[in-house]
Amino acid sequence: MTSAVDLYPELDTPQALIDLDVVDRNVSAMRALGRERSVDVRVHFKSLKCGGLAKYLMSAGFGTFLCAKLNEAEVLVDAGIKDVLVANQVVGPLKARRLAALATRATMSVCVDDAGNVDELAVAAAEVGATIGVLVEVDVGQHRCGVDPGEPAVALARHVLKHTPALRFLGLQGYAGHIQMLPDLAERTAQCRAGLQLLVETRRALEAAGIPVAVVTGAGTGTANSAAGFSGLTEIQPGSFVLMDAAYHAACPTYGCALSILTTVVSRRDERYVLDAGSKAISKDFGTPVIRGCPADRVIAVNEEHTIVAPGAGVVRVGDRREVLPAHCCATMNLHRSCVTVRGGKVEVVWPIESSGRYD
């Protein structure tokens, strides 16, 4: 990128940008993968957090979404999405009632790994005459949420079936988030398929017990290619592929970086220049960001309000603008209340990021 003061001059900085041309290419690649491998693609909203972006993806052919939090589910349903999975445990009567209320407006499903939680979800659904779909979450190696594969999952599925029609048993989820960015593709693929094998064997155990399984879902952006087409898996659930980031792109170069933070150079010395965005605008939990189009420039520090860069080739002046590619798109979207969409170097529209800064 050439040093310039006229990069989106109508925008103040720092500003989150989403390049829709890049989004379109990423979407096309993921849709092609699903189509070629005959697997459904459910888009994860935890990376996106923006109702306008969900609507845009729906118009591009994605009709099903999943999310991590109830507030994200509410944004999705408000945006017109009709099929939403909360890929997490929704625990406690307050949250159970919120989920049940959404189930009166859209097809809602949720993950469970505890019988008591199943009971409270059933009570909430029955109170409003709704039905909530249920996936038993299976621990396939991350050791976070989920029951053990095999008989523990069968036992919990039987418990869900006791609560028909308030609850509807759908199947299984198994997500291995810890392997999504493993740099060694062969190792990532091997671990992914080992986890999926546990999931599919659990499906067979359910079917042997006379329990039909409609959905077996898992994988993310980093394992989508390894998982798609795996026998017995019906659905993949990538999300970061839409926006991407510098760290994930290194592991999954198929998908380009659509999210950037527009910044301004506010100070210049021979050995450094300083941008007007720091860790309050650019997440650094997955590492340091990079400067788009300036491969020789090296980020040396990210402070609260400043990013310090060692310049490579080219002239840098105070007032110049730089697009910064964050190392973690999910956490960076959570820092901004709005994003500006661009296409072909031109500003299009502003979208609110309704779920940013919310953790409920």
From TrEMBL:
Gene Ontology MF, one: D-serine ammonia-lyase activity
D-serine dehydratase-like domain: residues covered: 258-343
InterPro entries membership: Ala_racemase_N, D-amino_acid_metab_enzyme, D-ser_dehydrat-like_dom, D-ser_dehydrat-like_sf, PLP-binding_barrel
Domain of life of the organism encoding this protein: Bacteria
GO BP term, example: D-serine catabolic process
Gene3D superfamilies reported for this sequence: Alanine racemase, D-serine dehydratase-like domain
Keyword annotations: Lyase
Family per similarity comment: Belongs to the DSD1 family.
Protein name: D-serine dehydratase-like domain-containing protein
Organism of this sequence: Gemmata massiliana
